[in-house]
Amino acid sequence: MKAGWNEKLGGYVKIAVVGPGGNQFLNDCMEKRLPVWDIRRVSESSFTCSLPLSRVKEARAILKGTKTKIRFIEKKGTPFLVKKLWKRNGIIIGLTSFLAILLLLSNMVWNINVTGANAKTEYELRKAAAAIGVKKGKLIFFLPDARQLQKKLTDQMDNVTWIGVTQKGTAYHFQVVEKELPYKPPVHGPQHLVAAKDAVIHDLFVEKGQPLIRVNDSVKKGSLLVSGYIGKDKHAKLVSAKGKVMGEVWYQSQVEIPLSTTFSTYTGKKTDHHFISFGKLPVPVWGFSKDDYKHSTKSRDEKNVRFLKWEIPVSYVKEQVRETDGVKREYSAEEAEKVARHMASQDLLKKLPEGAEILEEKVWRKSLSDGKVKLTMLYLVIENIASVQPIPIQQGE
Questions:
Q1: Measuring CA to CA, which residue among 356, 363, 112, 375 is closest to residue 256?
Q2: Are strands 171-178 and 111-115 parallel, antiparallel or unpaired?
Q3: Could you tell me how many helices (H) and strands (E) the chain has, helices first?
Q4: Given this model, what pLDDT does residue 235 score?
Q5: Is residue 161 predicted with pLDDT exceeding 90?
Q6: Where are the membrane-spanning stretches (predicted)?
Q7: Which backbone phi and psi does 90 adopt, to 5 degrees?
């Protein structure tokens, strides 16, 4: 028989039994169910064997009053290993500290790469990322995940269309797609100003060129507003027409609002639970209170732990439980119409060009069906309708 895991964990000793009562000792051990193994005869009056550390006192009691003695030869198992290591605690503490520091360094941000952005956008992105916490020396465990980072950064930066975020080891990679600004052709020669859409002229400010329209004139898309020709006949010359022509343009918008809506809101109460997960076994380390919320939502953020370049089967898990409360919102028909008109005007303002303003609004159609108020709105908007049209120059002009 060999020592099993239980014996190694609890510790065991190898002893020499010397004296005339050796055989009786073995018989007494069997009678008292005291496990003894690895029995080896050394001489006629002595042998060696192993027994659990916890049963040594019983073995001594069996031999008490006899001429047979016990002599310890070896001490093995966890208790003796721990005692041996404790005597060298300086080395153990140093090694443990070194491994802990190495583990921390393996899970910090050490590199941030940005591709697809110009110098200005890259500077703004790095500044916004640092404000969130993504900077060198920061522990990865306490940073938002890649999807949350992507949403936050994209929302904060107006000059980008999309930001891709990936985390590889101790490095974060940001892939930027910048917005393409409307192309403004450079002015290299003479040009007219023409109407970009149907409108009624509200006002005009001409810096260069010959205006061909007046206030309250109706124009169609493509109509000539300001000519690049100045003067008549032989004295006519070409210029680059420049100015603003403010026109009254009609827009239509449709919107519907339900009279009754049920939705969930957060009450502000939350509970955080922190775990260290070994494989699929989560071990709680902080936040042991129970969640007694009637209604709640749960989010889970898991960060894998790395050691140098290897990903080990250990992860840090933060689980957040937030209390929710169901809210029922009801409108009268008049209230719903007011809300619908406000939403329609706000949506339109987002689509209008810079400098445009709403001059007038009116309800064109209104209906109440299926528990919803449906509106079709008409808006009279003042905006710059002037668009550039180059004048082709023939050879000799």
A1: 375
A2: parallel
A3: 8, 22
A4: 75
A5: no
A6: 90-110
A7: -60, -45
Same domain, 24 and 127: no
Considering the domain architecture, whether residues 39 and 164 belong to the same structural domain is answered as no
Assigned domain for 351 exists: yes
C-alpha–C-alpha distance, residues 4 and 2, integer Å: 6
Torsion of CA 139, 140, 141, 144, to 10 degrees: 120
For residue 181, the model assigns a pLDDT of 61
- Shared domain check, 352 and 241: yes
Q: Which residues constitute the domain of residue 15?
A: 5-82
Annotate 355-378 with three-state secondary structure: CCEEEEEEEEEEEEECCEEEEEEE
Give every CB contact of residue 335 below 8 A, 6+ residues apart in sequence.
none
Whether residue 40 is found in the same domain as residue 147: no
Q: Over the stretch 217-261, which tens digit does the pLDDT of each residue have?
A: 999 999 999 998 888 777 788 899 999 999 999 999 999 999 998
pTM metric for this prediction? 0.51
Residues 245 and 336 both lie in one domain = yes
The total domain count for the chain is 4
Residue that terminates a domain, selected from 285, 308, 328: 328
pLDDT at 187: 54
Take residue 309 and report the two structure tokens written for it: 């370049």
Give the tens place of pLDDT for each residue, 93-151: 888 888 888 888 888 888 999 998 888 889 999 999 999 989 888 888 888 888 889 99
Burial of residue 231 (number of CB atoms within 10 Å: 0-12, 13-18, 19+) = exposed
